[in-house]
Design brief:
single chain, 146 residues, Lipocalin, globular
């Protein structure tokens, strides 16, 4: 009889486990920590040009209400030597994709960077900062709460 009970439990739990989407977005709010840039672990040099900045660390926070904060800490060749950039975005999530947007000063005709596009892959958020060109790809990992 115990074997039958175990089989029934296994049959009831299997569909729940099988239907869980591990590539979908996490529960929100969520914190992420930067682990690599263009496949290079940190510190990562963004470009082969000697004056190129080196990414030292970074974080990404999704607040659950459509607002995000991205922090990027870099070593640069000009003063002050190290700088932290903080960018505020709005975002929308559909399936395993996330689209970021920000207010570009100067309107739609201004020369502003492309909005990042991301993909949730397990506990990672792969963020293409070049839009869809794959020229600057940041890999963030979900930081589990204490």
């Amino acid at each position: 009889m115990r074997l039958l009970g175990k089989c029934v439990v296994a049959v009831l739990i299997a569909p729940v486990i099988a239907c869980h989407d591990v590539s979908g977005p996490p529960a929100l709010p969520a914190n992420y920590m930067l682990v690599s840039v263009n496949g290079q672990s940190l510190p990562a040099i963004i470009s082969p040009i000697p004056e190129s900045p080196t990414v030292l660390d970074g974080t990404l926070f999704l607040d659950g209400s459509g607002k995000a904060v991205v922090r990027d800490h870099q070593r640069v060749m000009i003063a002050p030597g190290e700088v932290t950039y903080t960018t505020n975005y709005t975002y929308t999530i559909k399936d395993n994709k996330i689209q970021f947007d920000f207010a570009c000063v100067g309107g739609p005709t201004a020369n502003c960077p492309r909005s990042p596009i991301g993909t949730f892959v397990g506990s990672h958020l792969i963020l293409d900062l070049s839009g869809t060109a794959n020229e600057l790809v940041y890999d963030y990992v979900l930081v589990m709460p204490d």
